[in-house]
Amino acid sequence: MTASPTFLGLPNRLADDRLPRAVIFAAAHGSTYPGKDSSGYALASGAIRAASQDDAGLVEHWDFDLGGPLFDGKPISCIDVGDIETTMHDNAGNRARIEAKTREILSSPAIPILLGGDCSVTIPFLAGFAAQGPVRVLQIDAHIDWRDEVHGERYGYSSPMRRASEMLHVAGIVQVGLRGVGSARISDMEAAQRYGSCLVTAREVHARGVEAALQHIPEGAQVVVTLDCDSIDPGIMPGVAARTPGGLTYTQLIDLIAGLGRRARIAGFDLVELYPPAEIGGLSALTAARLLVNVIGAIVRQV
């Protein structure tokens, strides 16, 4: 486990032995494709934690995104327990450790918040909810990630929604932010449509607001959110491997997170695909850090 810095300077445990409401952890590596170097993604969690440090002393200040201080005037209820040990190309081992940590946090009980890593870490993260089902998945992404396999690997970053669709505890999938030309073949789109995934393009959100996505989520449902940084417009999130114009704005994303917290229950959250080698001026890490603040605030405020 890494000792410091933690996200927002949060503790790694609550001093009075209270159970935390949410637990942040990071996993640098998931399932890599043969010959693929994913080491750049391993820098993401550190960049996000570093970007959050300027706000570490402001936790009790008024946050205009949330309409009040981060913890809504209550004691701190989120901890950051650091990074779990992962090794690039140890695909099965990485998946096992991520799933085990997710299950451990859920049994505490608390809401897990995972910092990736590429979005292959999403597969074992979702698998960790098997005993919590049924859950619905809200994927915020430019791509549908529905490939069955790539170079013989079925658990890589192109396949998380295909694998999620096969999990018995996943009751449905909503995918929002879709745009441009990505890795999806026509057969992948057909598979997503056969499953019944609700596909919401970025243009629909720009035209109709976040209700275009929220309307597909049953009230009171348990929802696991996976946020791929390339869902966000590269004007504010340049540090991704697949920049695509026309992405979601910061305001749309925080409205989506807040709206989800009011409509349903955020049961887990991951943020993936920040790629620091493509970063410009620290803007991506700053945007990611602010989004995570909103996630914590929404979790604190949900029933």
UniProtKB/TrEMBL annotation:
**Which GO terms of type biological process are on file?**
putrescine biosynthetic process from arginine, via agmatine
- Keywords, A to Z? Hydrolase, Metal-binding
Q: Does the keyword Transport apply?
A: no
What is the official name of this protein in its record? Arginase family hydrolase, arginase/agmainase/formiminoglutamate hydrolase
- Which GO molecular function annotations are given, in alphabetical order? agmatinase activity; metal ion binding
Record InterPro entries: Ureohydrolase, Ureohydrolase_dom_sf
**Species, as recorded:** Rhizobium leguminosarum bv. trifolii WSM2297
State whether keyword Hydrolase applies: yes
**Pfam families named in the record:** Arginase
UniProt family annotation: Belongs to the arginase family.
Gene3D superfamilies named among the record's database cross-references: Ureohydrolase domain
**Superkingdom of source:** Bacteria
